[in-house]
Design goal:
By secondary structure, this protein is α/β, with parallel strands linked by helices. It has ten helices and eight strands. The C terminus is likely disordered. Keywords: Hydrolase, Plasmid.
């Protein structure tokens, strides 16, 4: 069985496995690091897989005295880099996590070797996660039911009942005050004018049945980023890495190979080994 190390860095629970060049995964709004579970074994044989569980989500703490915004989450990623002594990594962001890693890349370009944006947008989301609709649903239904209603519409038509139920249980862990602040910040974020400044190879991945972040938004990302490329995963909704893991992992593996992971840099002893 693969060894997974869990550690706390600030308000962030981080799960680590494997050895090699650092590959950092960041989840989305009200989801958790477990949404990357299908990538752990597939990539830990060649990479140091680092799954960040953002503060306020899943098993991570949710202290009252901090922010749950895109800039704050980007600072949490920086804290992980520093604690693990990572100089450079590939960042993979899902949905809101895609917005977070765009922000991080624009602020710290020297720390990003390449970027992967999954079900992400440069600005705005589908009606199911429109800020007004989300806040109204939280008020009317409570945060758990509101989050689970979004999950019910997030998967493609071929997703199993068990997979949907897994996701429903994961999102139920995010409290209302975290969800409110995060969705407001996500709604306000807009990278459209800065996409040309993302100067690293970028893979944009979207499910062809995604109604949370419609594929047209992924087209805008891929066309706006100078080294952007688009991959559409068939028979998948908002979570292609869970719904079609073999197809997703194949696309990601091909992209990583093109990025030449041997050139990664990390001063941390546990992360300095080169990919083989």
């Amino acid at each position: 069985m693969m060894h997974i190390e869990t550690m706390m860095i600030g308000d962030t629970v981080v799960q680590l496995s494997g050895a090699g060049s650092p590959l950092v995964f960041v989840h989305g709004f009200t989801t958790t690091a477990e949404f990357w579970r299908e990538q752990v074994e597939a990539f830990s044989s060649r990479y140091r897989v680092i799954r960040i569980n953002l503060p306020g989500h899943g098993v991570s703490p949710r202290p009252d005295g901090r922010s749950y915004t895109i800039p704050a989450f980007a600072n949490d990623i920086l804290a992980v880099y520093r604690a693990l002594e990572i100089d450079e990594a590939i960042l993979v962001g899902l949905s809101m996590g895609g917005t977070v890693v765009q922000s991080f890349t624009l602020s710290h370009p020297e720390r990003v070797r390449a970027l992967v944006l999954v079900g992400a947008t440069p600005h705005g989301l589908g009606e199911d996660v429109n800020v007004d609709n989300v806040l109204m649903a939280i008020d009317d239904l409570g945060v758990v039911q509101a989050s689970q209603n979004v999950i019910d519409r997030s998967f493609g038509s071929s997703a199993s009942r068990e997979l949907v139920e897994f996701a429903r249980q994961e999102v139920a862990q995010t409290p209302a005050f975290v969800a409110r602040e995060a969705i407001a910040s996500l709604n306000a974020s807009d990278s459209r004018a800065n996409l040309r400044d993302i100067g690293v190879p970028t893979l944009v991945v979207v499910g062809n049945e995604d109604i949370i972040t419609p594929p047209g938004e992924s087209v805008i990302l891929a066309e706006g980023i100078p080294e952007g490329r688009l991959e559409v995963i068939a028979d998948a909704g908002h979570f292609p890495m869970l719904e079609q893991p073999q197809a997703f992992n194949h696309v990601l593996e091909s992209f990583l190979g093109d990025c030449d992971p041997r050139s990664f840099r990390s001063s941390g002893a546990g992360l300095s080994r080169q990919a083989v």
